[in-house]
C-alpha cells in the first residue's frame, strides 16, 4: 500500500516536471554551416584568395607542418556563439582541408593532407 502510494506520487511528480519542461525552449547549438566562410571553404575549387575575400579577419596564419602549404585559423560567430574554424591550403593555394578545429588540432588529428579531397572536421 505504501509502495503503491509512493509510485503514484513519483508518477505525478515526473509528469509535473515534464509539463514544466514543455514550456522551456531547447538550447540547440547554432548551425554554422550557413556561415559564408564555411560555405566558401566547402566550395569545390575554393582558393586562399577566395576564402580571404569572404573573411579576411584571420586570427593566425602559419605554414603547415604535415604538407607543403599553409593554414589559417578563424573564430566565427553565429547566434552569439563562437567556434574555431580552420582552412588549410596546399602550395598552389587550393583548399585541401577545413573544419571546426584549430589548425593545430586539425594537423594533430590528421585532417591536413595533400592530394586528397578536402576533409571536413565537424
Could you describe the 3D structure shown?
This is Transcriptional regulator. InterPro entries: BamE-like. Keywords: Signal. It comes from Burkholderia cepacia. The chain has 122 residues and is of the alpha+beta class. It has a single domain (32-121), classed as Beta-lactamase Inhibitory Protein, Chain:B, domain 1, CATH 3.30.1450.10. The chain is built from four helices and five strands, in the order αααββββαβ. It has a five-stranded mixed β-sheet with strand order 1-2-3-4-5, covered by helices on one side. A hairpin with a 2-residue loop joins β2 (69-78) and β3.
- Largest beta-sheet details: 5 strands, mixed
Number of helices: 4
Strand order of the largest sheet: 1-2-3-4-5
Radius of gyration: 23 Å
Could you say which structural class the secondary elements and strand pairing correspond to?
alpha+beta
**Poorly predicted residue ranges:** 18-28
Give the tags:
122 residues; alpha+beta; 5-stranded mixed sheet; 5 strands; Transcriptional regulator
Amino acid at each position: 500500500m505504501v509502495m503503491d502510494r509512493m509510485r503514484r506520487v513519483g508518477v505525478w511528480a515526473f509528469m509535473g516536471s515534464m509539463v514544466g519542461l514543455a514550456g522551456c525552449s531547447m538550447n540547440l547549438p547554432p548551425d554554422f554551416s550557413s556561415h559564408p566562410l564555411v560555405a566558401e571553404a566547402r566550395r569545390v575549387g575554393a582558393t586562399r584568395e577566395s576564402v580571404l575575400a569572404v573573411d579576411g579577419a584571420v586570427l593566425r596564419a602559419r605554414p603547415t607542418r604535415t604538407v607543403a602549404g599553409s593554414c589559417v585559423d578563424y573564430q566565427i560567430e553565429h547566434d552569439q556563439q563562437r567556434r574555431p574554424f580552420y582552412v588549410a591550403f596546399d602550395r598552389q593555394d587550393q583548399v585541401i582541408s577545413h573544419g571546426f578545429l584549430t589548425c593545430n588540432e586539425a594537423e594533430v588529428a590528421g585532417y591536413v593532407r595533400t592530394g586528397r579531397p578536402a576533409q571536413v572536421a565537424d
